[in-house]
Design a protein that fits this description.
There is one protein chain. Helices cover 43% and strands 14% of the residues. The chain has a domain at 70-213 and 246-351: Rossmann fold (3-Layer(aba) Sandwich). The radius of gyration is 23 Å and the shape is elongated. The chain contains twelve helices and eleven strands. Strand 3 and strand 4 (89-91) form a beta hairpin. The longest helix is centred in the first third of the chain and has 28 residues, at 3-30. The strands form four sheets. It has a five-stranded parallel sheet, sandwiched between helices. Strands 1-2 form a two-stranded antiparallel sheet. A two-stranded antiparallel ribbon has the order 3-4. The protein has 359 residues and is of the alpha/beta class.
Length: 359
């Protein structure tokens, strides 16, 4: 063997030893719960490692009412009957996994108008019963209109777009309402959140779908032992830098707006109207004046530029607050917040003439 070959061999052995050292160190560090939680961030590795730690001895996606979905990652399990959730609340789902017991055919009955509502846990109604969601209250306020709740906890706008494409448009909607939360935007950068999920990448102005089909929980758990924890650690640290430097936020905004554009495009192509509602949450509910927040300005400037109907619901919350209502400023909405949101959405839909309702 030549001296050059021996030198290359020693270099390879040295490199392998260094790789093993760093991999072992990363595995040791990430096996410590306190360390893992200390560095937890908005990245795939952080979310996946937290899910893995919570799944010991389980093969479930997340909540007991979740089911794995090969395109969207997870969905509401169909056919649930009177499940007790969130303490003492009641959850039902129809045969296609929409919240509530009501079954809807894809084809509308003559004269019926349909509103589809998409969103995350606030739209789904985490911490409330079926008859306390804003979709339910909206149905009560709009006679002759069917309101279908497509909300799913933990969803990003990417999953909402896929849900609209795959299922929503089959129901022949007249209006598609998006319950928008600014905090959902960072989910669009992730391939793992509550569970493994799809994500889009923006290439030359076009959305390209990644991470589909989404693996089952059994497959995800089975592959974990073979994942490099050094790569995980690097992903976490790089993610923290990207957020601190503003790189991730810029990517998040560009990708989110492209997804919202696509939702509006396919809605209009199906003959329906998109209507996006900014859902005020947490500290926004107790804000005592009408001045728009930075997040609200971002949302409403976008809707105005794209010609999308937008709903400023905080004025309804403020009006009810002045009338004596008490709202939860932390956690998910309670029935009063859902009722107020439905009041505002109904008022906008009627005011803008998006629904022709017979007197």
């Amino acid at each position: 063997m030549s001296s050059r070959a021996r030198a290359v061999g020693r270099l390879l052995v040295y490199g392998l030893g260094v790789a093993v050292f760093f991999e072992a160190g990363a595995r040791a560090a990430l096996s410590v719960d306190a360390f893992r939680e200390r560095i937890h961030g908005h990245d795939d590795a952080s979310k996946r490692l937290r899910w893995i730690a919570s799944r010991k001895g389980k093969n479930e996606v997340g909540y007991s009412f979740d089911v794995h979905h090969p395109t969207r990652g997870w969905a509401l399990r169909p056919g649930i009957r009177d499940m007790t959730v969130f303490g003492d609340r009641v959850l039902n789902s129809n045969s296609r996994g929409l919240r509530g017991r009501t079954e809807y055919a894809y084809d509308k009955a003559p004269g019926v108008r349909r509103v589809l509502v998409f969103g995350d846990s606030f739209t789904f109604g985490e911490d409330v019963s079926d008859d306390e969601t804003y979709a339910h209250f909206l149905q009560q306020r709009l006679p002759g209109v069917e309101v279908l709740n497509f909300g799913v906890h933990g969803y990003g706008h990417d999953q909402m777009l896929l849900y609209l494409q795959e299922e929503g448009l089959r129901y022949q909607p007249d209006v598609v309402v998006l319950g928008f939360l600014y905090d959902d935007m960072d989910r669009n950068l992730l391939g793992f959140r509550d569970y493994a999920k799809p994500r889009f990448e923006l290439r030359a102005g076009r959305l390209e779908l990644r991470n589909v089909p989404v693996p089952s929980p059994q497959d995800t758990l089975g592959r974990e032992a073979f994942r490099s924890k050094f790569v995980d650690l690097w992903t976490i640290l790089r993610g923290r830098w990207d957020w601190r430097s503003g790189v991730a936020e810029q990517r998040m905004k560009e990708l989110t707006l492209a997804i919202l554009d696509e939702m509006a495009r396919i809605t209009r192509a199906a003959g329906a109207q998109p209507a996006y509602a900014y859902l005020p949450v947490w500290g926004e509910l107790s804000k005592a004046d009408m001045a728009m927040t930075r997040r609200e300005r971002f949302f409403f400037n976008y809707c105005r530029e794209r010609g999308i109907q937008s709903m400023y619901l905080r004025r309804f919350f403020l009006s009810n607050l002045r009338a004596g209502a008490k709202f939860q400023v932390y956690g998910h909405w309670g029935p009063e917040e859902h009722r107020t949101a439905a009041e505002g959405i109904a008022a906008y839909l009627l005011e803008k003439g998006l629904l022709a309702i017979a007197p």
